[in-house]
Design a protein that fits this description.
heterodimer, A: 94 residues, alpha+beta, Histone, subunit A, two-stranded antiparallel ribbon, 37% helix, B: 480 residues, Arc Repressor Mutant, subunit A, nine-stranded mixed sheet, three-stranded antiparallel sheet, 15 helices
């Protein structure tokens, strides 16, 4: 097991996901399957291979430094669980 | 205490001078209402992907070149994952594996000696949002407010090698870095607006040791002076702890400006950012020609300018260093020099009166009303003898505050110097009559007595007599 159920619960907590019942155990199982697969890939010798920064043969996709319309303030705050004077309000951090 | 030495590395975040953010077209203008310069990209809404701002790449390369860095021709962005409310995506887009610039350096002049500080890397990244804590402090507040206007603003993070040895050196490094970036035109470098921010990694070790001690990271320093004070405090704290048989804990500490101490914020044993490539943005491939084109746009930098002032205008190295420490000041000096080509005199006034008033009023040069042409006119008035040096300082202050023409100020204040001999002759005759003892002293060879007599004439004219002319007339009369 590369990741424990406890770590999955901590990850869920940090991500504000509410895992219930069998879910922590199920997710632990599937995340470990992913990690096992990566372990297999790690066995390949890639020391002579340049890292693939992108899966498509793309490079230098730029835009010019020209301002565009920002979102309307009401839309910005529409999803905020709590809002005060235009700011998002979040619970105590530390 | 001298058995330990400090090992200091600085991480400086500098906001690049772009109109728009790194990955979206939202404005970067400072001081706007919270959350009015945001869009799905910089809010990190699911499904939103940004496109890289070309200007930011150009400015980052420019910054790297100005700092003598090598430029990465094959670079890309990475994700630095962490959970914090200022970062809505849950990761920061930064350059972890392939910084756009690396292996640079800058040279410091400290107490007449030169010291080179190497720069590990300068990489591009996005700024997180801005947090304000209700109730003032992060520790006592019950909630925090988030403004994402700053989220996505392009930064270069400039990381120095741990080669700095004191708070004083750290301050000198920052001043030099600021000047270079300002000259190169890559950033406004205003610490008070947050366009330049500095964190310090501080550790100590026994002199002669090559192993690094446990470091702490100091944050929350809002001026170069604060950086110097915080580092000096932290170095001493660590040395004392070790000498008392204690150990240093790897942690982040905050500088408290009022108390003059660093306070533990959070332990930072092993931050794991689980970095990986940002696969939604295409990699950056820079051609050598393009990099050279950028290099060609870099104007004369502070070191070259300082050298020019010394070699072409004969300024003392110290003067040249002070004048070139800020671009505004160097431009002011050059413009004044064009109209009054006596470098040392111009430098004396710039370093004396101009800097004195700027510091006393806590102003930027752009906020002062005096112009380089105005200073040149003033210096011409003094040279002609129309006003004394001392009056000149008074006039300078009015020019600084109100920006008027010096001739006008001299007229309005009735300051003009009396050089008219017939007028002075009358006053001098009176002074001679009233001070027979000093006259006799001078005539019997006491050279100093003349100073007293000149002083009496100055007093009688309320300082408006031309002291040189007075001296000459007095000598002539007393020799008779």
């Amino acid at each position: 097991m590369k990741i424990s159920e406890k770590e999955v619960e901590q990850l869920a907590f940090l991500s504000r996901l509410d895992l219930q019942g069998e879910e922590p155990a199920d997710w632990t199982k599937s995340l470990n399957a992913v990690l096992d697969y990566l372990e297999l890939l790690n066995k390949l010798d890639t020391s002579a291979v340049e890292p693939a920064a992108h899966v498509l043969p793309l490079k230098n996709i730029f835009r010019e430094d020209r301002p565009q319309q920002s979102l309307d303030k009401e839309l910005v705050l529409a999803n905020a669980p709590e809002e005060e004077e235009g700011s998002f309000v979040v619970p105590r951090i530390v | 205490m001298s058995r330990y030495e400090a090992v200091i590395g600085l991480e400086v975040h500098v906001e690049l001078k772009t109109e728009t953010k790194l990955f979206c077209g939202c404005s970067t203008e400072f001081g706007k209402e919270p959350n009015t310069q945001v869009c799905p990209v910089c809010l990190g809404l699911p499904g939103a992907t940004g496109v890289l701002n070309k200007k930011a790449v150009e400015l980052a390369v420019k910054a790297g070149l100005a700092l003598n860095c090598e430029i990465g021709t094959n670079t890309w962005f990475d994700r630095k994952n962490y959970y914090y409310p200022d970062l809505p995506k849950g990761f920061q887009i930064s350059q972890v594996f392939r910084p756009i610039a690396y292996k640079g350096y800058l040279d410091l002049e400290l107490n007449g000696k030169s010291k080179r500080i190497n720069i590990t890397r300068a990489h591009l990244e996005e700024d997180p949002g801005k947090l304000t804590h209700a109730g003032g402090s992060i520790i006592t507040s019950h909630c925090s407010y988030v403004d994402y206007n700053r989220s996505g603003i392009p930064l270069v993070e400039i990381v120095s090698e741990p080669e700095i040895r004191s708070g004083e050196e750290a301050k000198a490094y920052l001043e030099k870095l600021k000047a270079i970036l300002e000259y190169a035109g890559v950033s406004d470098v205003k610490m008070e607006q947050g366009s330049l921010r500095c964190d310090a990694n501080v550790s100590v070790r026994p002199v002669g040791s090559t192993v690094l001690g446990t470091k702490t990271e100091i944050k929350n320093m809002n001026s170069f002076r604060a950086v110097q004070r915080a580092i000096d405090y932290e170095v001493e704290r660590q040395i004392e702890a070790l000498m008392d048989g204690g150990r240093i804990i790897q942690e982040t500490r905050a500088w408290d400006e009022n108390l003059g101490v660093t306070v533990a914020m959070r332990s930072k044993e092993n931050p794991d950012y689980r970095c990986f490539m940002e696969h939604e943005l295409a990699p950056i491939e820079l051609k050598t020609e393009w990099i050279e084109d950028v290099r060609a746009t870099i104007p004369e930098l502070p070191d070259a300018r300082r050298k020019r002032l010394v070699e072409e205008h004969g300024l003392p190295v110290y003067d040249a260093g002070v004048i070139t420490s800020s671009l505004d000041l160097a431009e002011f000096f050059d413009a004044a020099l064009k109209e009054y080509p006596d470098a040392k005199t111009v430098s004396n006034w710039v370093m004396g009166e101009l800097l004195r008033l700027l510091n006393a009023r806590n102003l930027e040069l752009s906020e002062a009303k005096i112009t380089p042409g105005g200073l040149a006119s003033l210096l011409k008035l003094i040279e002609k003898g129309a006003i004394s040096n001392k009056m000149g300082k008074e006039v300078f202050e009015v020019m600084f505050e109100e920006g008027k023409d010096p001739d006008q100020i001299v007229k309005e204040k009735g300051l003009s110097q009396i050089s008219d001999e017939s007028q002075l002759n009358r006053i001098i005759a009176e002074v001679i009559a009233k001070n027979p003892k000093s006259v006799a002293d001078f005539q019997s060879g006491k050279e100093k007595a003349i100073g007293f007599l000149v002083g009496q004439v100055m007093k009688a004219t309320r300082g408006q007599a031309n002291p040189g002319v007075v001296n000459a007339i007095l000598r002539e009369k007393l020799a008779e």
